Amino acid sequence: MPAEDGLPAGLLREFRRVAGESGVLTGAVTAGYATDWTGAFAGRTPAVLRPADPEQAADLLRLCAEADVAVVPQGGNTGLVGGGVPGHGEVVLSLARLRDAGPVDPGSGQITAGAGITLAEVAAAHPDFDLGVLIASRGSATVGGAIATNAGGLRVLRYGPMRAQVRGVEAVLSDGSVLSHLGGLVKDNTGYDYPSLLAGSEGTLAVITAARLQLVPRPAGPVTVIVGLDGVAAVHSLALRAVREVGGLLSAEFFLAEGLALLAERAGLGPPLPAPVPAYLLLEAAGPGAADDLAGLVGDLPAAVGTSPAQRARLWAYRERHPEVAGFLGTPVKLDVSVPAAAWARFTSEVPGVVTAADPGARVIIYGHVADGNVHVNIVPGGAADGRHQDAVFSYTASLGGSISAEHGIGVLKGPWLGLARSPVEQALFARIRRAFDPAGILNPHVLPR
Ligand code: S2G
Ligand code: ZN
Fold first, then answer.
1. pLDDT at residue 2, rounded to an integer
2. Which residues face 142 on adjacent strands?
3. 3-state SS, residue 348
4. Which atom of ligand 1 is nearest to the CA of 154?
5. What is the pLDDT of residues 340-390, one digit of tens each?
6. Separation between Cα atoms, residue 417 and residue 395, nearest integer Å
7. Closest ligand (CA of 137)
8. Average of pLDDT values for 330-343?
9. What percent of the chain is predicted at pLDDT more than 90?
10. At residue 278, does pLDDT exceed 60?
11. Fewer CB within a 10 Å sphere, N or C end of the chain?
12. What backbone torsions phi and psi does residue 49 show, to the nearest 5 degrees?
């Protein structure tokens, strides 16, 4: 029987029988699902499947497994390593329509949210509670995708990554079975903690359709400050002092003069301080004594303080808009690494030179999360984006005992360098775990070892 768009004949009809006409997209309308938001990863797909509920998702997945058709699960398509777009003609399984959400339980501060609910919607679900994970893409990033990539973001030092917010999941396996454990019990020692395993699995083990999330008490009266410093060593030492001395510290973020200048030039963001300085540390804290603790820490250093929502938003814009900066100059290679605290200042000061040694014409924009060792190295290549930048940065990172992916995952971008972070024994175990969950081998086959 002739194939349709590369699919076994009749499969599209079966998809439509399960999900209806509106649940199966083909042709030009699929383009937005096949390209990531940075434009760095563009592919094509024979069909975008949009199940309306977990049962449809399970049936669609089973049909794909029976037809040996590869699937890329997709949430808000805000990923940064190409793990959520069909780079090899896979079918896209979009979880965007799974938007059922229960009420926030005022006693436990927990909520059961569908995979397609955005992080911003979860964070706004109850006045007394907030979502611990705060990322710049929260308006588009979804619960399912954020768990699958174990998203980190701006408050990891206080609340941990997405994995730490998960108290249970509902997920579908490629054989069409549905896992569900959404009770949210704090103590539940009854076997393998597979929700933790699914966090960070990048859609390779199962497709998350809902989650039971632990929210956090909404921080009271947060105070935000941007401090001007003479370099990354000063940024690091002041951030570590903040961790020790500032009660209720929520965030410790940094950016540098070059990125700030580009934000002023290209986005019209005027400077946060009266005079330019080499490096900037953004701290945010909440609770009793936070303002005094921050004031005591900052002393006479040049600083801008925000207490009202508008003032804080203005200060946060300098940091939250940094993901755009490299894009002002071209298509970026976005690297997201972490190094041990003892190596952080050395790494952050030396990595631009490591990049330009490999590509003299490259522009390097650095920013990120200080207290958890995470540095975002966003590169606009001068020469070909042929992997030389990853070679240089990842081998340098590994030489310092760091990780080639702090929070964005491996995706398709970092697969060739996984050996710098994981041993052959570990990678073989990953493949065995994967076969146990997805014996058909259809889930995101080009991400992580098989
Ligand atoms: C951040 C966002 C992604 C990027 O801003 O903390 O994780 O573009 C990044 O680097
Ligand atoms: Zn980040």
1. 47
2. 118
3. helix
4. 6
5. 999 999 999 999 999 999 999 999 999 999 999 999 999 999 989 999 999
6. 9
7. 1
8. 95
9. 96
10. yes
11. N
12. -100, 130
pLDDT of residue 178 exceeding 70, the answer is yes
The yes-or-no verdict on residue 28 having pLDDT over 50 is: yes
Q: How far apart are CA 379 and CA 360, in angstroms?
A: 12
CA of 231 to the centre of ligand 2 (A): 20
Predicted confidence at residue 1, as pLDDT, reads 47
**444 DSSP assignment:** S
**Strand, helix or coil at 31?**
helix
User: Distance from the CA of 369 to the center of ligand 1, in angstroms?
Assistant: 9
C-beta neighbour count of 109 within 10 angstroms: 18
Q: How confident is the model at residue 335 (pLDDT cuts 50, 70, 90)?
A: very high
d(CA 373, CA 367): 11
Is residue 230 packed enough to be buried (19+ CB in 10 Å), middle (13-18) or exposed (0-12)? exposed
Ligand 1 atom, smallest distance to 332 CA: 8
Identify the DSSP state of 420.
G
Residue corresponding to tokens 């073989």: 428
Q: Which ligand is nearest to the CA of 136?
A: 1
CA–centroid distance, residue 376 to ligand 1 (Å): 7
How much is the mean pLDDT over the chain?
A: 96
Q: Please give the backbone phi and psi of residue 206, each rounded to the nearest 5 degrees, phi first.
A: -160, 165
The tens digit of pLDDT for each residue in 198-246 reads: 999 999 999 999 999 999 999 999 999 999 999 999 999 999 999 999 9
What are 403's two structure tokens?
């990780």
- Give the amino acid at 120: A
Q: Contact, 174 vs 65, CB < 8 A?
A: yes
Residues shown for the chain: 450
Ligand 1 centroid – CA 52 distance (Å): 30
Which atom of ligand 1 is least distant from the CA of 319?
5
* Distance set, CA 78 to CA 247, 288, 289, 448 (Å): 33, 36, 36, 19
Q: Ligand nearest 319 Cα, by number? A: 1
pLDDT band at 37 (very low <50, low <70, confident <90, very high): confident
Give the pairing of strands 91-94 and 48-49: parallel
* Cα-to-centroid distance, 106 and ligand 1 (Å): 32
Q: What is the pLDDT of residue 3?
A: 59
Q: What separation in Å is there between the alpha carbon of 153 and the centre of ligand 2?
A: 5
Probe residue for ligand 1, chosen from 328, 370, 408, 413 as the CB with the greatest number of ligand atoms within 8 Å: 408
Residues 312 and 250: beta-carbon distance below 8 Å: no
Looking at the CA of 138, name the nearest ligand.
1
